[in-house]
Amino acid sequence: MIRKLFNSHSEGTSVFRNINVSLIVKSLSMVIGIVSVPIYRSFFGTEDMYGLWMAIVSILTWILFFDLGFGSGLRSKLGPLLDMGDKKKSKVMITSTYMGTLFVSIFLFIVSISLIWSLDFNSILNVPEGILTPNEIKVSMSILSFGLCIEFVLKNISFILYAQRRSGLAALLTLASTISLLSYFLIFQDSQIESKFIVSSIVYVTTVNVPLLFTTLIIFHRNKELRPKIEFFSLDDMKSIMSIGIVFFLIQMGFLFITQTDGVLITSFYSPASNAEYTYYSKIFVFFVGLMGSVVQQPIWSVIALAKKNNDVGKIRKYSKITLFIAIGIFVICVIAGLSMQFIFNLWLGQFAPQVNYFYIGVFVLNSFVFLIANSFVIIGNGLGLLKPQLWIILSSALLKIPLILLLYYFSPVETWINITIVNSVCYIPLMCILPLYIRKELK
């Protein structure tokens, strides 16, 4: 049915080919992410320890998102230069990006280490010292911080691969890291490792960075003309790279604050065990709704952007319908998954399976619907270049998150972590309702 919406067979084939390649690799990564949950839970022994690990990793991976737009900027600038065969300018852009991210990485490491060793994370994360001592938490977080700051620089190779239209290889890097980390937790889940948090932190940063480092060495060995050198660094080009990506960066930060702080907030407001329970529910729904952003977004975005450049309003409307059609299809799958959740939990988590709370299921299904429709309009808006409306809508929504959580925490008759997910749904409603008005205006 979807294929009939395409006017051109070659055009439709190209888009679906891009979606299918991404779907295979990224879906496999998400499947492994789901499979890993009971393995991680078994490794750490208790829901408190597992929930704490997830919260700490969630806190520190925010380091990767403070790239000030370097990633998006390099990807946008480098692609056309490579198409034109301008190797010298490409080298300048690559060198300037690596130097810029190195400066930012050092700054972030200094800030993160200062915060880690000055704050009481046992109190912040509701962790009794009998579960994990303050020193163990600080050492683990320091190791993760150091490794993630290295990843901050090494991940530039992924943006170079995207610019070279080798997105499959970029996706495989994440898959390799995920499989390697899962292998460690699987092999050693029954072992009596002392200081599990510290050892796991070392393994985590190793499995993340080794594939990136290996790929970096291979790519620059085979493309010596692109290899970064200090004499090719340009402050002006570094600023131009940042200027292109800064709006995307701010939008991304707004989205991340809404979606990626749940684990930390649940742990802080409720308990590490509550974060573990939240993870069980969210992993299933995120697996499906995540396809919208990780698989569908880039191919549809590119087609709509090209149609806008050619003033082809008909094609824009057609792909807008396709995007919404896909969102509805994924939502139907989410509903089916919600109704089957107890069976899924029993099959997936085994002895760790909780009794399903169908009020929670209802909230997650509603959250999925709001997210999918809002994300559909975001994809269309990105293709049309409607970034400023997205920026003020998403930042305004992000600013509402903490006040709304506090309101529900103190006054809601529901006294569980599900309040956080309810707030997330509310935060996406303005995007779902207001952004279509800008899209409609753009297409008139």
Structure in words:
The structure is a single chain. This protein is an all-alpha fold. It folds into two domains: 1-35 and 261-444, no CATH class; 45-243, no CATH class. It contains 17 helices and no strands. It has helices spanning 9-44, 47-60, 70-84, 87-116, 121-124, 134-154, 156-163, 167-187, 196-222, 235-259, 262-269, 272-309, 313-339, 341-349, 358-384, 387-411, 418-443. It is globular and about 60 Å long. The model is unreliable at 1-15 (pLDDT under 50).
Mean pLDDT: 85
- The value of Rg in angstroms is 22 Å
The number of distinct β-strands equals: 0
- Structural class comes to mainly alpha
The largest sheet, given as strand count, sense and whether it forms a barrel, is: none
Oligomerization? single chain
Gap between N and C termini, in Å? 27 Å
Shape: globular
- Total of helices: 17
Helix content: over 70%
- For the record, the count of structural domains works out to 2
- Low-confidence regions: 1-15
**H/E element order:** HHHHHHHHHHHHHHHHH
What fraction of residues sit in β-strands? under 5%
Task: Please specify the SSE layout and strand pairing.
Elements: H1 9-44, H2 47-60, H3 70-84, H4 87-116, H5 121-124, H6 134-154, H7 156-163, H8 167-187, H9 196-222, H10 235-259, H11 262-269, H12 272-309, H13 313-339, H14 341-349, H15 358-384, H16 387-411, H17 418-443
Q: What are the key terms here?
A:
444 residues; mainly alpha; 81% helix; 0% strand; disordered N terminus
Brief digest:
This protein is mainly α.
